[in-house]
Design brief:
The structure is a single chain. The chain has 2 domains: 13-358, Up-down Bundle (ABC transporter transmembrane region fold); 367-584, P-loop containing nucleotide triphosphate hydrolases (Rossmann fold). The protein is of the alpha/beta class. The protein starts with 6 loop residues before the first strand and ends in a 16-residue tail after the last strand. It is elongated and about 115 Å long. The strands form 4 sheets. Strands 4, 5, 6, 7, 8, 9, 10, 13, 14 and 15 form a 10-stranded mixed beta sheet that branches. A two-stranded parallel ribbon has the order 1-16. It is built from 19 helices and 16 strands.
Length: 600
């Protein structure tokens, strides 16, 4: 199988990432709700912009009333302010509600799409063999998708609001500054839209410097998310294998590995902190300067007596609105870098899911077909991996219904790889596999899978749950040596945690028997048992499935009476191995290698 070392990574472009996310949203069943929410928030933002313009106009009569010491005008303007502020309050609350709806709909669309793509047949399996992009898919679908939804909503709504306010107040600020005249000695200079140009120059300079300083945060955030995933994966791995670790007295070694992953993460976070401090010098400096810049820009006209105090405050308010809209990029540079890094992880993961269907696209593939008769055939079958080629010693093999065949080979020859090829999970190689007519063979791997569900649901397929009664299920459990489970059919448990490895294999064997297949393919599941247990299981097959065809891939040191026919798997080291796969790179992965300790 391929691993990180045999996988080549491609860097996807922003256009590719945006396109794949757009496809996910367009294909989502919640897109209609999402579109209605976006339309609603657009209406609310437009209404808010109108309210902000009215509030800006309110500045002039309010401050002029204060300058004239006009109490009646002052109180009237307070009532006008209450009306405008009340309307804006209602609009702000409505915007927050719609904002949350967009977040929820966007997360549902992204996560549902990713789960659907991930759970397409064989994709998740192939992705785990595609290198670092297949590590920690849970984080990309759960944490990264949620974070991307929140950032996309907040940044998108903020940008939309800033753009509408900019369009609304540019006209206001232009008209206010159109009459500004600067007196220089006996000369007068008029600059049309003087304050508009001042706002653009000021905000443009701040945006350029902020992007220059804050751009490294994209790469640093990507690295941080990758290292967070590594640490989480390591902790989950330790928890899953804590019994074996305790038996090996391996706590100290695992602690060192966890501490190494933690330090790698902390180093990535320290890099983000340094970049954020550098960015803070720029943004905070401009923040303090912004307190006085509008007044400094308009003060020459005010002191020349060309505008009143109310007109000055109105111009300052309009300048602040225009500058605030233009400064949106500066204020959100950290969030934009975070959004860009998260988009990279989620979009590249989705593209890698698509690419999993065409991994090793230039390599030959095994030809799968269904025979017209109840015969399984292997013709010139070769299964390729990065470690070479596994093949049957015989060029053409026919296995007829009712046969019991042992397929064996030396350790490391690739028996599990051969099993995966028969199952259709590993298509790379050459030759052909002809499957028998009728229902597909039942597959029994070394480590069977059990869903967290009641035991009867684990054992019985949906189509047979009403056909086989509890007594039959209990009899089969007793036959395989799991009589203590016969009274627990309604228990809902995590059976992979509840049962030992041998009990899990026995339960998987019982499940195969209850499904009553015509063909069974076993991958080393019998090799873990002693001879007495194997003979008991084979007697169960003879008793309950007398006509079944069995292919047992494994060592098979016992049971030659049950398996009179034997085939051999051999390693062809001279054949070409599987070439590296090309997948999207995702975030900065794989993690750095641990330094080997030196001996003294």
């Amino acid at each position: 199988m391929t691993d990180i070392s045999s996988t080549e990574f491609e860097n996807s472009s922003f256009r590719e990432q945006a396109a794949t996310m757009r496809q996910a949203i367009v294909a989502s069943p919640v897109r209609r709700n999402l579109l209605w929410s976006v339309a609603g928030i657009l209406v609310v933002i437009l209404a808010t912009a109108v309210g902000q313009v009215l509030l800006n106009r309110w500045n002039q009569p309010f401050y002029d009333a204060i300058q004239r010491r006009d109490m009646a005008g002052f109180l009237h303007q307070l009532l006008v302010f209450a009306e405008i502020a009340g309307a804006l309050l209602l609009l702000n609350v409505s915007q927050q509600w719609l904002n949350q709806r967009i977040r929820l709909s966007l997360r549902e669309a992204l996560t549902t799409d990713l789960i659907g793509e991930w759970m397409k047949p064989t994709r998740a399996f192939r992705l785990t063999h595609a290198g670092a992009i297949g590590v920690n898919p849970d984080q990309r679908m759960q944490q990264d998708a949620a974070h991307l939804s929140d950032l996309s909503t907040d940044l998108g709504v903020g940008l939309l609001q800033a753009s509408i306010l900019l369009a609304s107040f540019i006209g206001v600020l232009w008209s206010l500054s159109s009459g500004f005249v600067f007196h220089y000695g006996e000369k007068t200079i008029a600059i049309p839209g003087y304050m508009v140009w001042a706002a653009f120059i000021y905000a443009g300079t701040a945006s350029w410097l902020s992007w220059l300083v804050g751009r490294p945060l994209i790469r640093l955030n990507s690295e941080r998310y990758a290292r967070e995933a590594d640490l989480r994966f390591s902790m989950v791995r330790v928890n899953e294998h804590i019994d074996a670790i305790a038996l090996e007295r391996g706590e100290a070694a695992e602690r060192r590995r966890l501490e190494f992953d933690l330090q790698t993460l902390l180093n990535a976070i320290r890099g983000i902190f340094r970049a954020q401090i550098n960015l803070a010098w720029v943004t905070d400096t401009y923040g303090w300067i912004t307190v006085v810049v509008p007044i400094l820009v308009a003060s020459p006209v005010y002191f020349a007596g060309d505008i009143s105090f109310g007109g000055l405050m109105m111009a300052v308010g309009a300048f602040n609105q225009v500058h605030s809209s233009l400064r949106w990029f500066v204020n959100n540079i950290g969030g934009i870098a975070d959004w860009r890094a998260t988009l990279m992880r989620v979009a590249d993961f989705r593209m890698a899911l698509k690419d999993a269907d065409i991994l090793h696209g230039d390599e030959k593939r095994i030809d799968f077909a269904v025979n017209g008769t109840n015969i399984m055939t292997f013709t010139n079958l070769e299964v390729r991996s990065q470690y070479g080629c596994t093949r049957l010693a015989d060029q053409h093999v026919e296995i007829r219904a009712g046969e019991h065949v042992l397929i064996t080979g030396d350790p490391g020859v690739g028996k599990t790889l051969f099993f995966r090829a028969i199952a259709g999970l590993w298509p790379w190689g050459s030759g052909s596999i002809g499957m028998p007519a009728g229902s597909p063979p039942e597959l029994l791997p070394r480590s069977p899978y059990f869903a967290p569900a009641p035991l009867w649901e684990v054992l019985l397929p949906v189509e047979r749950s009403g056909v086989i009664d509890d007594a039959t299920v209990a009899d089969v459990l007793r036959d395989v040596g799991l009589e203590h489970l016969a009274s627990n059919l309604d228990r809902n448990m995590r059976w992979d945690r509840e049962l030992s490895e041998d009990e899990q294999r026995l339960l998987g064997f019982a499940r195969v028997v209850l499904r009553q297949p015509q063909w069974i393919v076993i991958d080393e599941a019998l090799d873990a048992f002693d001879g007495t247990t194997v003979r008991r299981l084979l007697s169960v097959l003879e008793k309950r499935l007398p006509q079944v065809t069995v292919l047992n891939i494994g060592r098979g040191q016992h049971n030659y009476e049950y398996f009179p026919r034997s085939l051999s798997i051999v390693k062809d080291t001279k054949a070409a191995s599987l070439k590296p796969a090309r997948v999207k790179a995702g975030a900065i992965e794989p993690p750095p290698a641990r330094v080997r300790p030196t001996t003294r």
